[in-house]
Amino acid sequence: MSEQERRPEDDGQDFANAAWSIPSYLLAGMAIYGGAGWLLDRWLDTSAFFPIGVVLGIVLSVYLVYRKYGR
Amino acid sequence: MITLTAPAEDQFKAPSPDELFTFSPIINGVDWFTKPVLLALLSSVVVIWFCWAAFGSPKIVPRGVQNVAEYGYMFVRDQVARPFLGKDADRWMGLLVTLFFMVLLWNIMGVIPVVQFPVASHIAFPAVLAGSIYVLKVYLGIKHQGAVGYFKNMMFPPGLPKGIYLLLAPIEFLSNLIIAPFTHAVRLFANMFAGHMLLAFFSMVGFWFLFEKLTPLGAGVGVVGVIMTIIFTGFELFIQFLQAFLFAMLAAMYIGGSLHAEH
Amino acid sequence: MMKAATLLAAEEGSNPLIPHTFELVVGIFSFFVVLFVVGRLLVPRIQKTLAERTDAIEGGIKRAEEAQAEAQNLQKQYREQLAEARQEAGRLREEAREQAAQIRAELREEAQAEARRLVDAAHAQIEADRQAAFTQLRAEIGRLSTDLAGRIVGESLEDEARQRRVVDRFLDELESSNAQAVR
Lengths: 71, 263, 183
Fold this sequence. Notes:
- The complex is a heterotrimer of chains A (71), B (263) and C (183).
- Chain A has two helices and no strands.
- Chain A has a domain at 34-71.
- Chain A has 71 residues and is mainly alpha-helical.
- The longest helix of chain A has 36 residues, at 9-44.
- The N and C termini of chain B lie far apart (54 Å).
- Chain B has 263 residues and is mainly α.
- Chain B has one domain.
- The N and C termini of chain C lie far apart (174 Å).
- The longest helix of chain C has 133 residues, at 21-153.
- Chain C is an all-alpha fold.
């Protein structure tokens, strides 16, 4: 949707989009990077990458939501 | 409820999910025909009957059932379809009205006396609807944005620094194509599941302490249970309506997202 | 077989996140039946009715506006006609006044002319009478005078021509002196 044809209800729509996307993005981020860290841990026989991956996933998800809906 | 463990006989025991959500067949030998199945079919019949009575031969000046059903229609149109689909709203009203009325009825079955079981608290029913919406969403996305365009728009939203795409694309993919439909179904299911558990628990407290084992001390607890049952029944009614609205709203959101690429 | 199925069902029941196969089937069936009847058949009907209602309301508003416009038009027309009639009446009154004045003037003119004509006729009559009297008197006076003079002088003035010359001269003198006296 381009800038010119923005209607007042678009703001509400954006808000709803963001509100219902955030949990989904957080879960996805944690799953992807937490999963990658877990695999890395299993492969290298370490235990640090799983929590790092989870945190990274959360950070990336929050960043993504912020860039998409934050402004 | 039959409790098999002996020491629980004279003690209050909270109902377990298994007791509340597992049903034996209504007719012996017809395994598939259980209470949730019966209620699901009944809900469909009621929704069709209600809509037929209201919209079968609609009048310019609405009367009776049509008036009530029009409120529902207007609600879906103004709160669900138009905010998310804009000028495409009218095309999808059929689907959204069906979703809203069906989910609402499935949920309301949970507070109707005697019936008292929310159909949507069995994951199969929300899953069917969410799965259908999911298929529709992907189909519409590919149809309107092209197979490549759809996935490109989804995984590489414009306006982000180039390098970060590599990290974010998997999140977008997982979020949109796997987690979103899952949460779509699970949100409805979990709300109904928990609500039913809560209602069952409080009514069980009331029943147990006031009828099964009436003691001076326990009577107070029983009264509290009854009051809580009444309060939570009202609260559940609200939640059931809210969840039906949210389910239809998310469906509209997904359809809208597939018709037009996100900005 | 049957026992296995029941066992399976019981097993499925223990995990609320795993859907029962038969419930999926019933769910799909009931959803699509409702979608067809409500979404395909009934919702278009109510949409049509709602569109018609909007049309009816808008049409009603439009009709009311038209009626109002017409009423205003009529009122305007009526006012215009009234003003026109008033103007016409004023014009007629004015015309009548003018006509009356004209008639009065004409009558006066006529009366005056008539009076003048009568006066003139009277004058002419008087003049003619005077002339006739004068002429007659003149001849009479001449004859009387000669008779008188003849009788006084004792001399008969037989000669007619001479007599007349003398009388005329006398009269001319008399007339001129008379005129001088008048003047």
